[in-house]
Design brief:
This protein has 214 residues and is α+β, with helices and mostly antiparallel strands. It contains three helices and 15 strands.
Length: 214
């Protein structure tokens, strides 16, 4: 009987040991920013970019993932800058502030607009009303943020291994989709010293285009 109990106990311990060995860390649990959708509108007079996703709030690149909340950021550039701009977009409505660094009117809201093919929005520019339709450029053939992250892990697994200890990842990850005549992904890996290793990926094929230490 004692031999049977001993053998059973050994089998249980061995089984749990195997589970621990084969358990893989889910790095998506450490993503503190994921910008996943971009809407674009452009004509001869204005250009508009609307970014949607989730990010840490308050934001701090310290290698520790904090509370993550939804967000939408809107940038509107004019050929000739007006004095005042108000926007209504989905359930977001408000006055836009001019950002001199970006030379654009800017609005940020803690609401994430759901992914749509097209997004209607209205602008009130110096008292005159206009209506536009922005296109979601992140749909056709663009890889997901999870796939983008996996491409980086496959490319540079050593960086992730160095920051992983006892089944925990000692860092945070930023994933931002970009658009410049095509979609790209920025993936940043930030350690607890605030040092960031950044990667630029093709948004369709997941190929690493560039990497840099920041």
């Amino acid at each position: 009987m004692r031999k049977f109990l001993t053998a059973t106990l050994f089998l249980v311990i061995f089984t749990f040991s195997l589970c621990g060995c084969f358990k893989k860390i889910d790095y998506t649990d450490y993503v503190s920013e994921s910008r996943t959708t971009i809407y674009i509108y452009c004509d001869d007079e204005i250009s508009v970019k609307i970014y949607c996703g989730n990010k840490e709030s308050p934001y701090c690149a310290d290698g520790i993932k904090g509370k993550v909340e939804s967000f939408t950021e809107i940038l509107v550039k004019f050929l000739n800058n007006p004095k005042s701009v108000n926007i209504t977009c989905d359930n977001i409505c408000g006055e836009m502030n001019y950002n001199a660094v970006k030379n654009a009117f800017y609005l940020s809201d803690g609401v994430k607009i759901p992914p749509l093919d097209d997004l209607l929005f209205k602008l009130e520019v110096d008292g005159k009303a206009y209506e536009y339709k922005a296109t979601n450029v992140t749909l056709n053939g663009v890889i997901s943020k999870e796939t983008a992250l996996n491409c980086v892990i496959e490319y540079d697994g050593e960086t992730f291994e160095q920051l992983t200890e006892h089944g925990l990842f000692n860092g945070e990850i930023f994933i931002r989709i970009l658009y410049d005549e095509g979609c790209y992904y920025y993936v940043g890996v930030c350690d607890t010293q605030g040092k960031i290793k950044a990667y630029l990926l093709d948004g369709v094929y997941g190929k690493i285009i560039a990497e840099r230490n920041l």
